Amino acid sequence: MALGKDYAAQDCSLARALEVVGERWTLLIVRDAIYGVRRFSDFLVHLDIPRAVLSARLQSLVEDGVLAKDGNDYVLTAKGRDLWPVVHTLARWSEEHMSAEPCRLFVHVGCGARVRPDGACPSCGGLVPMEELEIHAGPGVRHRDDPVSRVLRSPHRLLEPIRT
Predict the structure, then answer these.
(1) How does pLDDT run across 102-113, given as a tens digit for each residue?
(2) How many Cα atoms sit within 13 Å of 17 on the Cβ side?
C-alpha cells in the first residue's frame, strides 16, 4: 500500500501543521529564508536541492502563506516568521540529543549575549525577537564554498537579505 501524502484522517493540530511544513526540505527552506536567503538560485546552491523540488516547495510555501513572492525574491510572511521558534528549537534539540556541535550561534544584538536554547537572552532575561538576532558561524559549521555559506561565515542579522 502506498504511503499517504497528507494527514487528513488525523484529528490533531500537529498533523495540520505538518501539512504545511512536514515535507522534506521545507523547514530548511524556511531556515534559509530566516537567515536572509531570498533568491531561487541562492536556495538552490545552498541547499543542494533538486531544482524541481525547490520550485514545488517554494510554490507550496507561497500558496500556504508562509512565503510571499516579491519580484524575484521570496520573503517570509508573518506566518513564516512565526516558525522561528520551531526552527531554533529543532536545531538546539539536535545539538543536545544528537551530540552535534552548533553550526550557528545566535547573538542578541542589543547586548552581545548568545541566546539560550529557549530563545531567551541570559543577560536581558526575555525572549529575543528574531529581528534582534545576529547569526554567527559556530564550531560545527562546515566550510562549504557556495556563495550563501561564504556570506554566513561572517556575522549577519537574521531576516536581512543576503545578496551573493
Answers:
(1) 899 999 999 999
(2) 9
